[in-house]
Amino acid sequence: MSANVPRRGLVLATLCLCAFAVNLDVTLVNVTLPRLVVDLDASTRDLQWIVAAYTLAFAALVLAAGSLSDRFGRRGALLLGLGVYGIGNAAAAMTGSAGALIATRAVMGVGAAIIFPTTLSIISVVFTDRTERAKAIGLWGAVTGLAIALGPIAGGALLDTFSWPATFAAKVPVAAVAAALVVWAVPTSHDPRRPGSTSPDWCSPPRGSASWSTR
Q: Residue 13, Cα to own-chain centre: how many angstroms?
């Protein structure tokens, strides 16, 4: 393999940041529920949907989103997912009703469904050595678990310091930073079975990079 090791480390860090953000949302919202009852007059059913809308959208679309990213380009799909995720969080921070918050949570879930499988696909492309790939996936999985565990802690800190909209607004700059890192460092690739493909899976250099190889 001739890929630049520091650059591959940056790619992995970027992908882990993306995975961290979308998994943080699984548990972060839970600590805001008592405040939502007061501020948005949310009913018990509303609270259930606020929690479930994200995971339902994610679970329903994750397989299809992963297939689309393989077919039409993984870096573009990752950027699209981050954009949808960031917009969903920005809208959630400005919402004034439980129904609107449920809708924005579903939008976040759509973005997460695009992001999550795409990060793993890119790891498989960038880390072609079996041992290095196993280590990269292990780190990716550890970050995913850490995000779920830290969700209530991060949410509680933001809630105590600011208010419940801050638990959503804080993720907007995270998505923006992740998108900038994706543009700068992450190579684009397609599944070799995409229409018109006549060669094995390939990886083109990210913007600003003179060369890149995953072989």
A: 13
Q: Which segment of 40-44, 61-65, 142-146 scores lowest on mean pLDDT?
A: 61-65
Cα Rg for the chain, rounded, in angstroms? Answer: 18
Q: Is the per-residue pLDDT at 9 higher than 60?
A: yes
Contacts of 1 (CB under 8 A, 6+ apart): 128, 129, 132, 213, 214, 215
Q: How far apart are CA 202 and CA 211, in angstroms?
A: 13
List, for residues 152-175, the tens digit of each pLDDT value: 999 999 999 999 999 999 999 999
Nearest to 105 by CA among 117, 160, 113, 153: 113
Q: Which long-range contacts (CB under 8 A, 24 or more apart) does 135-139 make?
A: 136/12, 139/12, 139/16
Query: In CATH, which of 3.20.20.70, 3.40.50.300, 1.20.1250.20, 2.40.50.140 is domain 5-185?
Result: 1.20.1250.20
Task: Give the pTM.
Answer: 0.85
Structural tokens at position 133: 């790939």
